[in-house]
Write a structure and sequence with these properties.
- The chain is mostly helical and 164 residues long.
- The protein has a single domain, classed as 3-Layer(aba) Sandwich (Rossmann fold).
- It has a three-stranded parallel β-sheet with strand order 1-4-5. The chain has a two-stranded parallel sheet with strand order 2-3.
- Helix 6 links the parallel strand 4 and strand 5.
- Helix 2 crosses helix 7.
- The mean pLDDT is 92.
């Protein structure tokens, strides 16, 4: 089972990049896959800096979908989210890392195991890779990432940390 891949969407990728912690992906999963549509979304802003960051993170592998038309089945999702779910299906992923609510609902209906950005941070704390989830949450909020206050409270409670 551990050989099954982890597939990552753009928002968690951007969040970890914003923290300067793409290394958490290697520490938690050894290797992650992103579909080419997610790579394109990631490079849409600050192209050169982000290209350099991915080139320095060989544990993040970009894959083309074997059957690109499968992504068309996910009506209402953006191209990257649809490609993440299609790639997760194609590769029999053990985990999908995605934050967007609509995409998460699709993944749940497909029976995929999910986590999001905050779930990864919690796992990173449990693995001793970060000292504080709340510090990371504050940094993400300062960078402009919207995180649900209820979800933040829940994650910080699980992490046994005070409110951010």
């Amino acid at each position: 089972m551990p050989n099954r891949p982890v597939v990552l969407n753009n928002t968690p990728l951007v969040a970890l990049w914003s923290l300067g912690r793409l290394d958490l992906l290697q520490g938690l999963f050894r290797e992650v896959l992103i579909p080419s549509a997610v790579e394109e979304e990631f490079f849409a802003i600050e192209d050169q800096v982000r290209r350099k960051a991915l080139s320095e993170a060989p544990w993040i592998k970009t894959l083309e979908l074997s059957h690109p038309r499968h992504a068309l089945a996910y009506i209402g999702l953006d191209r990257g989210e649809a490609a993440v779910l299609a790639l997760a299906e194609e590769t029999d992923a053990r985990l999908v890392v995605i934050d967007e609510r609509k995409a998460r609902r699709y993944a749940e209906r497909m029976g995929l195991t999910l986590t999001g950005t905050l779930g990864m941070l919690l796992a990173a704390k449990r693995a001793g890779l970060i000292g504080s989830v709340s510090a990371c949450v504050k940094q993400l909020q300062d960078a402009g990432l919207f995180l649900s206050p209820d979800l933040i409270r829940k994650i910080l409670e699980i992490a046994e940390e005070g409110a951010s």
